[in-house]
Amino acid sequence: MEEPMTEMTPQECWDFLREQEFGRLAFHLADEVHITPINYAVDHETLLFRTAPGSKLLGIVMNEDVAFEIDQYTETHATSVILRGRARLLEEDEAHRSDNLRLRPWVDTEKYNVVEILPTQVSGRNFDLDRPWLHMVPRR
Amino acid sequence: MEEPMTEMTPQECWDFLREQEFGRLAFHLADEVHITPINYAVDHETLLFRTAPGSKLLGIVMNEDVAFEIDQYTETHATSVILRGRARLLEEDEAHRSDNLRLRPWVDTEKYNVVEILPTQVSGRNFDLDRPWLHMVPRR
């Protein structure tokens, strides 16, 4: 019988991160936690994303501690990769690092900044969802 | 020409929340921000989820401030609903509120706690993704 959960290797996590392009960024904004979808790309085991000035940028400039998640799921299986790390606004002379990556903003905007997430922890799990919970009721 | 982003009404946000069952919870754990996928259900404009003892439960007991996100996307469009709120571990005599909801844990576990998220802010956006970014390069 299959295990309901298996840990992914670091290599599997990075392969999955490279396959995807949308994830969710959790960040501090003063003493609150916020979450937002972002389009990202992997650049040498760091993540890059673009952002216009706003609360996301303000939050990470005030506190570099961030968490990031991507996932994929079907009726019976789910894969989720989580990373924690430090976000850093790239200087003008580094921002070109995003030029050749498959990055597109969710909204058209001419002004943007490039942010790098330097991971301190990366983990991934495959979940087996096909054992219904004992008390589960039929779908409504 | 279609706007690249439109705000969803509160009603549309709740309809979307009721249609989905997987989301991502961002929470504080001491001075860090963490993110994790969860299976949830809507119960009267609150969210409920089950969790075994662990860092997620510890985090929200230490700090009730949480953020939650669900989304859905295709090559050309994305929908994302975000809520911020307060998480609260339900008392034993309230935990039955989860009994008739379409909730299944991502991992089999007999011991669980029921957590309620009481939203303080709910917002949703539809994004139009079909305008490629000006500098976009062909997919690799």
Characterize this entry briefly.
Chain A is mainly beta and 140 residues long.
Structure commentary:
The structure is a homodimer. With about 140 residues, the first copy, chain A, is mainly β. In chain A, about 15% of the residues lie in helices and about 50% in strands. The first copy, chain A, contains two helices and seven strands, in the order βαβββαβββ. The two termini of chain A are about 30 Å apart. The interface of A and B includes residues 82 and 135 of A.
CATH fold name of chain A, please?
Answer: Pnp Oxidase, Chain A
Low-confidence residue ranges of chain A: 133-140
| N/C terminus separation of chain A | 29 Å
What is the CATH-assigned architecture of chain A?
A: Roll
Strands in their spatial order, largest beta sheet of chain A:
2-3-4-7-6-5
Quaternary structure? homodimer
Mean pLDDT of chain A: 86
Work out the count of structural domains of chain A.
Answer: 1
Principal-axis shape of chain A equals globular
Strand content bin of chain A: over 45%
Q: What is the name of the CATH class of chain A?
A: Mainly Beta
Q: Which value, in Å, is the CA radius of gyration of chain A?
A: 17 Å
Percent range for helical residues of chain A?
10-25%
DSSP helix count of chain A?
A: 2
Number of strands of chain A: 7
- Give me the secondary-structure category of chain A: mainly beta
CATH superfamily membership of chain A: Electron Transport, Fmn-binding Protein, Chain A
Main beta-sheet strand count, sense and barrel state of chain A: 6 strands, antiparallel, barrel
Q: Would you list the SSEs of chain A in sequence order as H and E?
A: EHEEEHEEE
